[in-house]
Description:
Blueprint: H1 2-111, H2 116-136, E1 138-140, E2 148-154, E3 160-166, H3 172-199
Amino acid sequence: MEDHWLESLKKKFVNVDTSTLQQLLLSKAEIVDEIKRNQDQRFIEDETKIKELTSKLDVMKETLYTETQTLEQKNNELSREKVYLEELEAERKKLLQELKQLEGKRNSLRSAKPNLQDQQVLEQGKKKLKLYKDFTKIQWDYEATKFGIKGYVSNKRDYIHHFYYENQEINDKLTDSLWHEIHLSTSEGEIRDENLQSNIPD
């Protein structure tokens, strides 16, 4: 009787222990699965973050490279501008020096007394110019010299003739043409004088 009781009690506790162990194992397995799922989820999230950070890092590297290239280009431009400014400064100093020298020469010329010989040469030149003008009877149009040779011949009495030679250089043909104009003014005047003399009664 006692053996039977002990045997049933033993089976009861053995069954209870086995059931408890199974529940514990199942519970532990669920916990392990939950931990594994959490770890997998974290791994996926971490991998996504790593990819995002890697992409941002690549963008930052590209931006840094571009900005570095731009900075080097601007630095080169500034270096060239600096050299150019130094050249301009040297040129400015040179021009200032030349200006001072010219001002000194101008002041010395202002303070210098007129040279009598130079005055005489100038007066002779003016007289010669007036004689040539009176002799040739040519009045030049100096404003038209860019486009040609223009003016008129007049004997200051009753003859005037305009002439214009477009874009011509001074040569023998042009010189002959101008002398012909002078000759006409003189000839016309002489013919008129002769006609007047012949019409005057004796």
